């Protein structure tokens, strides 16, 4: 979504009551995520929502994401609306002279462009999953080696918790269609619009769910559960690892009550979450679970803690800045010497940090 025209095209179902125009948001680097007023920067990945009258997208962008190259007027691949090549010297533009009509110009993981390479990642696909690896592969997905979590090789969008009647193409289009070149090339924008009209993506926001649950239970709690500009990416990275949403919500609420502030790093949140796993194993014995459900839950817990490279030692190292806890110390040091890429999301990492159990 490097061109302003492509970003603007994602706002076809933008809510009319939002007091910020799609034209201004697209001009400031944002594309629409298809849910309420939630938008994402095409250049830094920053997400903003809950727009109010008088908000200036340029100011909000720099306030919440001060290191974004686009917001800081640094060189990017942006092409403004109506331009054949980007001008120089203006905020948020750069040196690119061509753009692709595809939502994401290049695949995030080009090594998995052919179906056979993606299929090779499914050798350890869980037997309990009702979804066929071949159907997932044809829809652009590769396996992440965590439970039934998969990611698209092009847009890097992740999906999990597959059900018997799920359609991989439809889920792909529903959640990531407007920003994924693979879906656009294979299915087209008409298909994406049809899917999203029939089944709009419902983003389960941790803070919103917790607020609704507390209201339902008539519990008074006025503090926000996380600040979108600071903590949203941290929370999402932890959810992507497979941590249970209820546990994340409980830890965030407890942190606010004790310290009156949000989590500021993924490591901090992980260190608060990891001790919960031990207590959860005891909670499982207190509930009347059938053997199959208990075995599935215990297998999920073991997979969460397992190193995703050697599949034997416990994961104890966090990759920064993506925040994934997925390797033991030995494998993390090996990856540091061999390409410095996170084995889960394939993003480059700057450093690794040990996560200690409290």
Automatic annotation (TrEMBL):
Compartment(s): Cytoplasm
Occurrences of domain RING-type (ranges): 307-346
The reaction(s) this protein catalyses: S-ubiquitinyl-[E2 ubiquitin-conjugating enzyme]-L-cysteine + [acceptor protein]-L-lysine = [E2 ubiquitin-conjugating enzyme]-L-cysteine + N(6)-ubiquitinyl-[acceptor protein]-L-lysine
One Pfam family it belongs to: zf-C3HC4_3
Domain of life: Eukaryota
GO molecular function terms listed in the Swiss-Prot or TrEMBL record: ubiquitin protein ligase activity; zinc ion binding
CDD domains per the UniProt record, alphabetical: BIR, UBA_IAPs
Any one of the GO CC terms: cytoplasm
InterPro entries: BIR_rpt, IAP, Znf_RING, Znf_RING/FYVE/PHD
Record-level GO BP terms: apoptotic process; negative regulation of programmed cell death
EC number per UniProt: 2.3.2.27
UniProt-listed PROSITE patterns: BIR_REPEAT_2, ZF_RING_2
Record's keyword terms, sorted: Apoptosis, Cytoplasm, Metal-binding, Repeat, Transferase, Ubl conjugation pathway, Zinc, Zinc-finger
Keyword Amino-acid biosynthesis belongs to the record: no
Matches recorded under PANTHER family: DEATH-ASSOCIATED INHIBITOR OF APOPTOSIS 2, INHIBITOR OF APOPTOSIS
Family: Belongs to the IAP family.
Protein name: RING-type E3 ubiquitin transferase
Organism of provenance: Branchiostoma floridae (Florida lancelet)
């Amino acid at each position: 979504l490097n061109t302003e025209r492509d970003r603007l095209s994602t706002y076809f179902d933008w809510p009319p009551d939002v007091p910020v125009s799609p034209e201004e948001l697209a001009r400031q680097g944002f594309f629409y995520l298809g849910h309420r007023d939630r938008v994402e920067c095409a250049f830094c990945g920053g997400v903003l929502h809950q727009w109010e009258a008088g908000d200036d997208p340029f100011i909000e962008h720099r306030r919440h994401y001060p290191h974004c190259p686009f917001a800081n007027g640094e060189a990017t691949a942006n092409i403004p609306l109506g331009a054949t090549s980007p001008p120089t010297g203006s905020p948020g533009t750069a040196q690119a002279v061509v753009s692709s009509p595809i939502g994401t110009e290049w695949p995030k993981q080009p090594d998995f462009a052919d179906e056979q390479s993606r299929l090779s990642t499914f050798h350890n696909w869980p037997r309990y999953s009702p979804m066929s690896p071949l159907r997932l592969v044809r829809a652009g997905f590769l396996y992440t080696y965590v439970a039934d979590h998969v990611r698209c090789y092009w847009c890097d969008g992740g999906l999990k918790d597959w059900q018997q009647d799920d359609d991989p193409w439809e889920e792909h289009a529903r959640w990531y269609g407007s920003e994924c070149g693979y879906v656009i090339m294979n299915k087209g924008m008409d298909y994406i619009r049809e899917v999203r009209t029939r089944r709009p993506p419902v983003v389960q926001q941790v803070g919103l769910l917790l607020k609704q649950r507390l209201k339902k239970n008539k519990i008074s709690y006025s503090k926000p559960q996380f600040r979108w500009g600071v903590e949203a990416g941290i929370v999402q990275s932890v959810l992507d690892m497979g941590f249970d949403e209820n546990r994340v919500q409980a830890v965030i609420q407890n942190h606010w009550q004790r310290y009156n502030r949000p989590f500021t790093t993924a490591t901090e949140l992980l260190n608060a979450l990891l001790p919960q796993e031990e207590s959860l194993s005891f909670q499982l014995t207190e509930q009347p679970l059938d053997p199959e459900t208990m075995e599935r839950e215990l297998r999920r817990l073991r997979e969460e803690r397992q190193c995703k490279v050697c599949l034997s030692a416990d994961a104890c190292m966090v990759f920064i800045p993506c925040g994934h806890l997925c390797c033991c110390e030995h494998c993390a040091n090996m990856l540091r010497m061999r390409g410095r890429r996170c084995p889960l999301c394939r993003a480059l990492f700057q450093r690794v940090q040990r996560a200690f159990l409290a």
